[in-house]
Amino acid sequence: MSAVEGLSDETTRTETASLRTLVQYAGASGDFYEMHYDLPFAHARGHRELAVHGLLKAAWLSRLVDDWFAGRGRLAVLDIRYRGMDFREEPVTCGGRITGRTGDRVEVEVWTADADGARTTVGTAEVDLAGER
User: 37 lies in a domain?
Assistant: First the structure.
């Protein structure tokens, strides 16, 4: 039985950042570090490809949780740690799993994983349920 009626205990979604996505995110966030849009710069620093912004991965995880709970609650806490890099045009799996519930607060494990399944971002989220009793 799910911790939240009518909601699966786990969800995943795949995101892929194109060059356009990285440049748009750089403009929106003000993070213009060349590692995210200048391939020769990334190569000169030993990286095979352009890096996805860490905060873009945080945004993907926030959207995952928001869409998953879809009107049942609101994201109250997102606490993540970056463990590895993700790169342009490579699939990034965003995942979440409900780990507990205390009253109207639901605890969720969240992560991103690269194409090999290695977790590149790990953390937790808390969702305040909206009117569920």
Answer: no
Name the β-bridge partners of 126: 77, 107
Q: Which residue, among 65, 110, 64, 106, has the nearest Cα to 83 in the 3D structure?
A: 110
- Helices 19-29 and 54-69, packing angle to 10 deg: 90
pLDDT digits (tens, 9 = 90+) for 37-88: 999 999 999 999 999 999 999 999 999 999 999 989 999 999 999 999 999 9
CATH code at position 73: 3.10.129.10
Which tokens belong to 75? Answer: 């994201």
Q: Report d(CA 98, CA 108) in Å as an integer.
A: 4
Do the Cβ atoms of 98 and 106 come closer than 8 Å? yes
Domain residues for the domain of 79 are: 10-18+52-129
Separation of alpha carbons 42 and 13, rounded Å: 27
User: Nearest Cα to 127, choosing from 74, 81, 50?
Assistant: 74
List 13's β-bridge partners, or say none: 94
Structural contact between residues 105 and 45, judged by C-beta atoms closer than 8 angstroms: no
Q: Answer whether 33's CB lies under 8 Å from 42's CB.
A: no
